[in-house]
Amino acid sequence: MSATYEIVVCAGIVPDPLQTLEPVTGLSGPALKNEMMLPNVLDPWAACALYEGAALVKKAPGSKLRLVSMGPKAKLQQVMMTAAQKAAFELVPVDGPANGFADASAVAEAIAAAIDTIAGLDRTKLLLFGGWESASRGSGAVLQIVGERLGIVNQFQGVDELAIQPDGSFRVLERIEGGKHQVSTCTGAPAVFGWATGSLPEPPNNPQVGMANMRTVLPALQKAKAVALAGAPAYASVALPAGRRTTKIVKDVPVDEIARDIVAWISE
Amino acid sequence: MDTLLVLLHTEADGSLPKAAREALSAGAETASGLGIADWSVGIVGKGARDAAGTIASCGAKRFLAAEGSDLETPRYGSDAAAAETLAKASGASIILAPATSRWCRVLSGVAHRLAGRPDAHVTALKAEAGKLSVTRWYYRQRFEAVLSRAERPWIILLDPGCQAPWQGAPGTCSVEAVAVAVPGDAKRTTVTGVAAPPAAEQTIRPDAKLLFVAGAGWTKKQPDGQTHAPEAEALILSFITKTQASLGGSKSIVDMSGEGQTTFKFMTHMNQVGQTGATPRHPKGLSTCCHGEEPHVVGWRFVNERRAVNLDPACGWAQGKADVLYVADAFAVMARVNELLKG
User: Fold this and answer.
1) Integer-rounded Cα radius of gyration of chain B
2) Contact A127, A64 (CB under 8 A)
3) Is it true that B4-188 and B199-342 share their CATH fold?
């Protein structure tokens, strides 16, 4: 593989999935209760994109990996303490809200503007990575819009595989309906890849990589520009779904009886 | 006064997918609710003009069609150009489309081109007093929000399974053919086909009446101190073959397959339900050997009737989330279920 790439991973931060979340109404609209107290993680599908990007850099020596992430500085710093141990990257932080109620178009504009500021970025080699949907807004909108904003019309969503071919072209597998993948080829960069799970496990923490990253991450965080986002929709309500179910516990009952009950139920 | 375009695409065989007819049904209701008499339907893809005839009696006043070799396969650059062109030709301020993989890939980008706003994974629309609001979920189906927007055009992607599909007689209608200029750069991408698992391992069935969710418990040591993954695999595969259920997996079990541990050959990340997986819509769901929030809370948010087989009667995730919790050994239960299904 002789080509080199400029891989830019767009990854938000979200509350740890194991946290209990509750919506509240703040001054600027809906928010999460105790949002600043919740431990955050890199958005799961975007994290897959980061790991895939790091693997691609290893296969294409000379390539660069950058991570563009938006969130409150303190939360970004907390997340980077772990994320920075997973892969070597240059952080491009944006100091802004992280919650899913912000408008996707405004978030995309802020991220695109941050990418615009990356010095020396060769856009002819640009591979824009991210998760195909976030675990917060879950709209799958931001990456597409960033791609449009950067003038990239070769985009792929729900990507599980990106294989560089001997001629430098890409073979891409995208998730489609019914557990299938659409198979495409693309002649090369620039392109957008909204990753699903991909095929790589989460890399183990590497403290040496983490320390090397943090030498640039912390100064970058200090310089991060604050952005204000406008254009959020008008929320009439944001609520937890209605109530608990009354669960019937079937215990100390013969297996045969349980099996018959299940068969009768699925046959109804 | 808003104007409406229902934006559809055809399948590879030229037919309209079920999700398209659902969006059409929602579009007709929305037009009625907003008092829009002159609403439009736009169709992209192979056989688009013929497909318009199959929905000629839906009530739309205009039918726009974009077809041609560049639009026969789902590709971002050409689909975005087609959607943008049809949106502009219709002049619509509200564009409603089914949240298929084809439209989800492009319509947020198209909203940017139109200086509009997108909202994906909408589950309901309400048109009242001349104002449209939509319902969608946030934080992986944890919060349900109702929202509206002032910005136009507003592109709304309606999730499949949320609306009864439109049904009506085919007929004849005047179809305006719309030419789409596909940029040369977009043609750097070529769709070469579809990769699907072998029929015997095709375990994801979006239209199935039952979702069967397997948890990592199937791969753990059983009372004899041994694991029984091959037996578990056979039991699960036999059950979903007999019932034609769709198979879901907890994060734990699909991660095991990704990390090369012994698990089921047919279980991939595509099967995962929950936080970083799918939240499929099925009338019924049966979870087995699951002990976590993902399958019980997030994964089956849109499953109506829910039952679980679990050895732990105090399982906090099943209690309050499932209708029935069978406290039993899933190996024994599913073996007997399979025997009964034979008869």
Assistant:
1) 23
2) no
3) yes
Does the beta-carbon distance from A248 to B325 stay under 8 Å?
yes
| Contacts across the A-B interface (CB distance below 8 Å) | 266
Answer yes or no: do A262 and B151 touch at CB < 8 A.
Answer: no
Q: How far apart are the C-alpha atoms of A163 and A172, rounded to whole Å? A: 7
- The string of pLDDT tens digits covering residues B66-111 is 999 999 999 999 999 999 999 999 999 999 999 999 999 999 999 9
Q: Read off the pLDDT of residues B253-274 as tens digits, 9 standing for 90 and up.
A: 887 765 656 678 888 888 988 8
Q: Do B117 and A258 touch (CB under 8 A)?
A: no
Radius of gyration for the alpha carbons in chain A, expressed in angstroms and rounded: 21
**Is A167 an interface residue toward B (CB < 8 Å)?**
no
Chain B hits for A231, CB-CB cut-off 8 Å, are 117, 151
What predicted TM-score, i.e. pTM, was given to this entire model? 0.94
Of B269, B306, B326, the CB nearest to A258: B326
- Joined together, the tokens standing for residue A51 give 């790991």
Tokens of B340: 């009964």
Summarised one tens digit per residue, pLDDT across range B161-187 is 999 999 999 999 999 999 999 999 999
Identify the closest residue of chain B to A98 by CA–CA distance: B139
Q: Are B57 and B41 in contact (CB under 8 A)?
A: no
Residue ranges per domain, chain B? Answer: 4-188, 199-342
- Residue B294, pLDDT score: 59
Residue A56 · residue A5 · CB < 8 Å:
yes
Please tell me if residue A267 touches chain B, with a CB cutoff of 8 Å: no
E-strand ranges in A196-243 read 234-239
Length of chain A: 268
Residue A26, min C-alpha distance to chain B (Å)? 15
pLDDT at B296: 64
B199-342, what's its fold?
Rossmann fold (3.40.50)
Tokens 């099996």 map to which residue? Answer: A259
Establish whether this prediction's ipTM goes over 0.90.
yes
Instruction: Give CA–CA dist B296/B116, Å, rounded.
Output: 37
Domain at B4-188: CATH code: 3.40.50.620
Task: List, in sequence order, every residue forming a beta bridge with A176; answer none if it has no partner.
Answer: A180
Provide the pLDDT confidence category of residue A183 given band limits of 50, 70 and 90. very high
A88-119, pLDDT tens digit by residue?
999 999 999 999 999 999 999 999 999 999 99
